[in-house]
Each structure stands twice: as structure tokens, then as C-alpha cells.
Design goal:
Blueprint (H helix, E strand, L loop, with lengths): L23 H10 L14 H4 L7 H12 L4 H8 L3 H8 L7 H11 L8
Helix pairs in contact: 4-5
Length: 119
């Protein structure tokens, strides 16, 4: 039987964590055991606000869009599940309409998220 000639590509990812400073060494040690190594020169990799200034001021809308995509929903499908008009969801994602606490809780239950991320 012939052996496969193609090698599987190893996909590399970078991770950024926020947590208690006292557990940093333990977290690094655990990640090393899983095969992760530190990224060189990537100390501020999580400073996305500097990298994407156009998103500043619309963090909740970006989070709504991301959470919706993560769950595989279109705006229309989210509208049908939430009872919130699709045009309002579009306006919220584009920062033209505030989400509000009531809608945030509705989205959180549908999108499996913490409602505070939408505020």
C-alpha cells in the first residue's frame, strides 16, 4: 500500500491571555507543555485598539457582529430569533444605534455570551 506523499500542514496560531499576574509562570509552564513557545517581539499583540483605530467607539457593535458570526447566524436569522428588526441589528453592528441593556440580554442568551460585552 502506498504511503501518503503529502505532509499535513501545521497551522500556527498566537494566543493572548489576560489573568492574574501571580499565575503567569504557571500559565506559561502549562502552555510550554502543550507545545507553545513565546512569540518574539509580540509584547503588545493584544493592543488591538492601536492596530484598528477605526473600531474605537464601536467595540460593542464589533463584538455583536463577531458573536453572530461565531454562532453561524445571519442578521436576518438573529432578527427572527430575537424579535429585533434586522435593520436595527445592522445599525447596532455599525455603531449607528446603541444596543442597550435589554437588547444586550436578548443577544447574550441567543449568542451564548455575557450581556455586558454588548454594552
Amino acid at each position: 500500500m502506498p504511503e501518503p506523499t503529502k505532509k499535513h500542514r501545521t497551522e500556527e496560531i498566537e494566543l493572548l491571555f489576560v489573568g492574574p499576574a501571580g499565575k503567569k509562570a504557571a500559565a506559561i509552564s502549562a502552555l510550554h507543555r502543550l507545545g507553545y513557545v513565546p512569540s518574539e517581539g509580540k509584547e503588545n499583540a493584544g493592543a488591538w485598539r492601536e492596530s484598528f483605530p477605526e473600531l474605537r467607539g464601536n467595540e460593542s457593535g464589533v463584538y455583536l457582529s463577531g458573536a453572530r458570526h461565531r454562532e453561524g447566524l445571519t442578521q436576518r436569522e438573529l432578527a427572527a430569533k430575537s424579535g429585533i428588526p434586522q435593520r436595527h441589528i445592522s445599525e447596532m453592528e455599525n455603531g449607528k444605534r446603541p444596543i442597550g441593556k435589554k437588547n444586550a440580554k436578548v443577544f447574550a442568551s441567543i449568542l451564548n455570551a455575557d450581556y455586558r460585552a454588548f454594552l
